């Protein structure tokens, strides 16, 4: 199938824009690769320290002839998605031995749960944790004893941080090993209804807790299509997972077989063998375009619009918001998974999942097929489904028919003709809006604004009954320089109640929304942020603002707005408590949200 003209044009623009940076990056990667196996450059004393605790694997490590696999793990048992990783190192070491290799835990990286910190002070460290993870993974791999690496991570900032590190060490192969989603619990629409009932005081906290525990109930990723599961989709579309690995439940024989196969494949593609596939060759402009296509076709998390530019820059690729917008306009929305629909990721996987999607998008000319992946050459490999036959992992062609057209549709008959994201421009700055779950009648909101500097103030105003007319809620001084750019997802039930009462409502913020952004239009990541004197700082209560998803505009219509002195906020309270003291340097040096809000790249 001929490549879609818009996809080809966007790719060409990215490649041209990135050429100087990409050339320097690839030159650096090639020089590092030419040095040969990493362990060969360590002195005997260095190596003795590295192998001292490796028991029967010592001889294999010391000879340097067998490939050594570095395991970078984000294990903790506070994240349900990461709890299964507790048993992976032993499994991976044995898998390596079976093919004559070795494996060592290179190091651990932190992994925080946005579900725990949502609406709490700790959320102000969440975005910065991505850069900390990249740094920690870099330290893990700096011992220079690894011929390939596997990365154990699933959730929101963890995968992007690990990708940044994998790209930085891009001269060695890297393969991402997921842990899979938890089995389905309380349906997401029922959970959402309970949250709204709690927000209006119809039920008490005991009923809310009961519903939440029934929803988040076991090991594995949360089953809604938020940032964690969008990450898993992205790794498959970009060729860093084995095909079909993303949404296999933890604790199943197929999950274990894919984990073993992933480790052994990583050892097959080192420079010591005949199929060298370093990360730098996998993560090119085409891979990132494929990832954005997947993001739009599935209605994925807005957080990836922050993470992907940072991930790309680590690989010498420069992404702009215009790239996301252009691809969104070219790619149909083919999936409806909560919060964009009623299904969860288990239902999505059963309906045909990523294999169906990738096959459809390839046939429609909306993906680059000619890419390198950890599985081999060509994205067509990712249309195949893993099966366990008599204990042996194999891949089979899948039926090109959706098993449930309320969840998953072909490219020729999508849920909507364009993807779920809109770029917004105007005199209030540059931002994005996710519309895949927003009904068309709410794509345009023109209303007076209410200004807040804290999400808690919005909830208090709601409890006092102050929202009685159409309102655009502006929560400013929430950008990365202000307070680390926390998610404002806890506002979703409140704003949804107002919308259900018949009001036209919207959110405008220089902060983030959750990967589970819902049915209320939210203009997020507005840049420059208010703390940098951005236009949001000039707004006052009562100003008339127009948010137009169709036109892609975000405008203040009040005369004289642009000549005002910007407001300031007392941010002194953002620098202390729950570890915020440690991140002063991050807040001071972070980049713009429009370029990834990054510190280390």
Task: Explain how this protein is built.
A hairpin with a 4-residue loop joins strand 13 (544-548) and strand 14. The chain has 601 residues and is an alpha/beta fold. The model has no long low-confidence stretch (mean pLDDT 93). It is globular, with a radius of gyration of 24 Å. It has 21 helices and 14 strands. It has helices at 5-34, 44-51, 58-63, 88-98, 114-117, 126-141, 158-168, 188-199, 205-215, 227-237, 253-268, 279-282, 285-298, 303-314, 321-330, 345-350, 353-363, 455-463, 480-483, 492-500, 584-589, and strands spanning 68-73, 102-108, 148-152, 174-177, 384-389, 392-397, 421-426, 429-434, 444-452, 471-475, 505-509, 522-527, 544-548, 553-556.
Keywords:
601 residues, alpha/beta, 4-stranded parallel sheet, 21 helices
- Number of strand elements: 14
Total of helices: 21
State the separation between the terminal residues, measured CA to CA. 36 Å
**Main beta sheet: strand number and arrangement?**
8 strands, mixed
Q: Please state the CA-atom Rg, rounded to the nearest Å.
A: 24 Å
Strand arrangement within the widest β-sheet reads 7-8-12-11-10-9-13-14
Based on Cα principal axes, name the global outline: globular
- The average pLDDT is 93
- Fraction of helical residues: 25-40%
Task: Give the low-confidence spans.
Answer: none
